[in-house]
Amino acid sequence: MLDRLTAQPADALLALIKLYAADPAADKIDLGVGVYRTADGATPVFRAIKAAERKLVEMQDSKAYLGPEGDMGFVRALAPRVFAGTDVLGRVDGLQTPGGTGAVRLAADLLKAAGTKRMFLGVPSWPNHAQILKAVGLPVETFTHADIATQTIDFEATRAALASAGEGDAFLLHGCCHNPTGLDYSEAQWDEIAETLAARQIFPVIDIAYHGLGQGWDADNYGLRAVLAKVPQALVAYSCDKNFGLYRDRVGAIYIVAKDADGLPAIVSNAAAFARANWSMPPDHGAAAVRLILEDEALTADWLAEVDEMRARMREVRDALAGYGMAGSVDLKPLQHQNGLFSTLPLNADQIKALRDDHAIYMAGSGRINIAGLTMHNLPKFVAALAAVTA
Ligand code: PLP
C-alpha cells in the first residue's frame, strides 16, 4: 500500500536551516527561518513567559484533558486584545488551537462544511495557506497581492478579485505584517475592501500572526476593525507564537464573529467537532502561560515592553536598510514602510544562490528575507553582498 506514495519535495526552508548550520563561515547570515532574533541573533524565551511558566509549575495541579476547545480562560483573556476598538465582543466566541496554523485549518474546515464555493487568496502568501486549503478541498482563486519588482501592493488585482467574488465566496486576508512581502493594505484600501466585502456578501477570514510587531497593537488591527465594522460574520485566525515567542509550544485561537450571540453555539460546536477529529485537543502549556500573563497586570506590562523592543528593533533595521538607498539593482527604500518580520526582494535564483555560495547569506528561494536576521553589525556586509550579486 505505502509503495504507492510518491516522494514529496523536502521543505525548502527546513533544508536551508541544515545548510546554514553546516556552513563554517564565521560571518554567515541566516535570513531564512521565520523567527524573531535579537541583535545578538538569539530567539529567547520572553521574560514574562518564564515567569508565567514558573507560576504554572507551582500552581497547576492536574493535566487531565480539557476538551477540544482547549483553555477557554486563554481564549477569553485574549479576545479583548484581538477585538479592541470593535463592538463585536458580545457576538464572538472561540477555541484554542495548535498555533495560527490550527486556526487557519479550522477556518477552512468550517467554510468547506458551510458550502463555501471559492476561497480568494492574494499571492504570494504564507505557503501553508494554499496547502491547508488544498488539504481541506476548498477551491482556491488566487490574485496578485503585490508586485515584488516595484515593491507595491497590486490593489487593482485585489479590486478585480473582489469584483469577481460574491455571496458564497470567502476572502483570506493577512491582518497585518503580510508574509512574505511585508506589504500591508493602507487604511483607505482596507476601508474599500471592507465596503466591498459587505456589499458583495463575501465572507472574510482574517489571519493575524504578527499582531503588535508591525506598527503597534492598534495600527496593526486597523484592517480587522474596518472589516468587522461592515460585515455581519467573519472568522479570525490568531497566533500567539510570534508575539509571545512561543513558536514550538503551538499557541493560537480561532474566533468566530457571528451575526448574533444566539448563532454562536451551533458554529462553535462544528469547530469543536473538527478540532476533535484533527487533533482532539490543543497542547495546554503555552496557552496556559499566555493566560497567566494576560491575567496579571505586571506580567502583561513586561510582555508588552518586550514586544515594543522587538518592534523597535525591526523598525531600526528597516530604517537602516532604507538609508542605503540602492544596493546594486535592489532599491531598499521601500522596505522602510513595510511591516513585520518579512520582506521579499526582487532577486532571481542565481542571485540567491550567489549570496549563499559566495557570501554565506541564507534566504528562502522566493527572495524572502527575515528582517530580524539583520543587525547593525551584519547589515553592511549584507548590503555589500546584495550590491555585488545584482551589479
Ligand atoms: N499565518 C501566517 C500568515 C503566518 O505567517 C504564520 C506563521 O508563519 C501562521 C499563520 C501560523 O503560525 P503558527 O502556526 O506558528 O502559530
Low-confidence stretches: none
User: How many individual β-strands?
Assistant: 15
Small-molecule binders here are: pyridoxal-5'-phosphate
Quaternary structure? single chain
The main β sheet shows up as:
7 strands, mixed
Question: How would you describe this structure to a colleague?
Answer:
This protein is an alpha/beta fold. Helices cover 43% and strands 15% of the residues. The protein is built from 14 helices and 15 strands. Helix 3 crosses helix 11.
Present the secondary structure layout:
Elements: H1 12-22, E1 29-30, H2 47-59, H3 72-82, E2 92-98, H4 99-113, E3 119-123, H5 127-136, E4 140-144, E5 146-147, E6 152-153, H6 155-164, E7 170-174, H7 187-199, E8 203-208, H8 217-220, H9 222-228, E9 234-239, E10 251-257, H10 264-278, H11 285-294, H12 297-323, E11 326-327, E12 330-331, E13 342-344, H13 349-359, E14 361-362, E15 368-370, H14 379-390
Parallel strand pairs: 1-14, 3-4, 3-7, 7-8, 8-9
Antiparallel strand pairs: 2-10, 5-6, 9-10, 11-12, 13-15
Pyridoxal-5'-phosphate (PLP) binds at residues 34, 99-101, 104, 126, 174, 179, 207, 209, 239, 241, 252.
